[in-house]
Amino acid sequence: MKKQLTLWAERYLYAPSLSQKLLSLLLWPLSLLYCALMHVRFRLKTPKTFGLPVISVGNLTVGGSGKTPVVSALASHFSDVAIVLRGYGRQSEGLIVVSDAKKTLVDVDQSGDEAMLYVQVLPKAVVIVSERREDAIMKAKEMGCKVLFLDDGYNKHQIKKLDILIEVATSNNFCLPSGPYRERLWPSKNALQIREDREFKRSVKLIDATEKMVLVTAIARAERLDPYLPEVVEKIYFEDHHYFTKDELETILERTKASSLLVTLKDYVKIRKFNLPITLLELHLELDEKFVSAVETYIKENL
């Protein structure tokens, strides 16, 4: 039931049917109120400096936009880096150091899938999850980090930072609950807006490919993978951050007669312990030099 509701919500927000468009129009007064409240919230915040450059990568809409690959690609250009994120879907609370840049300190249940993904692709970075980003920034500074990346931190207006926003294509331009926008790019708010095929390009590599693969993934707006997929026997989508069980994955393999599960790295960090046949859909980002240079300039000016 939860899976069906999630998929319905994604269609409603990004590719609404006629009936969903009518519902969106009915909810429009609530959207105006919500957006006004978000603007008041923004105006009431005063950015605080934490003594190290903070770069936030996010988007204005709900759902996936490719934040994690962009953060990973950017952070790989620097040393003494910390990655801070909320840790959606984790089975824990509070501030947790997932990696101290030397070793992994907790398991994926405590860290959440995205934090563990960062540990895999950035083994020399400090990775911290916390509901309160300010506490995590102070902890990272205490641990000697010189540069900090926030995963999805645009709305943390109380933190002085460089905001990088990934543009997401949608025909629905309303704020919640009529549309996908959590906030607007407020007139007095500076942000660096980036877009795929302009500031970054994706490429895909299959690791351990087999003859018959079934796509199984738990990422938001999973249809984003379609341009990069090889031929698969079936596509099976779960809600974002879903924690798989071995039984449900074995059932999928048996039903589809697939020879391996085709998964993203975000899925892989949760299912590798099951010792099932896996093909990894490994995404790589190539960043535009001018974009990287703009981030480098900000970091040098704020060290």
Helix and strand succession? HHHEHEEHHEHEEEEEEHEHEH
Helix count from the secondary structure assignment: 10
Mean pLDDT: 94
Strand order of the largest sheet: 3-4-2-5-1-6-7
Please give the CATH architecture of the largest domain.
3-Layer(aba) Sandwich
Largest sheet: 7 strands, mixed
User: How far apart are the termini?
Assistant: 49 Å
- Total beta-strand segments: 12
Rg, nearest Å: 20 Å
User: What coarse outline follows from CA principal-axis ratios?
Assistant: globular
Main structural class: alpha/beta
**Percent strand:** 15-25%
Q: Would you kindly provide a written description of the structure presented here, covering whatever features stand out?
A:
This protein is α/β, with parallel strands linked by helices. The chain folds into two domains: about 45-200 and about 290-300, 3-Layer(aba) Sandwich (Rossmann fold); about 200-285, Rossmann fold, CATH 3.40.50. Helices cover about 35% and strands about 20% of the residues. It has ten helices and twelve strands. The strands form two sheets. It has a seven-stranded mixed sheet with strand order 3-4-2-5-1-6-7, with helices on both faces. Strands 8-12-11-9-10 form a five-stranded mixed sheet. Helix 9 (about 265-270) links the parallel strand 11 and strand 12 (about 280-285). Helix 6 crosses helix 9 (about 265-270). It is globular, with a radius of gyration of 20 Å.
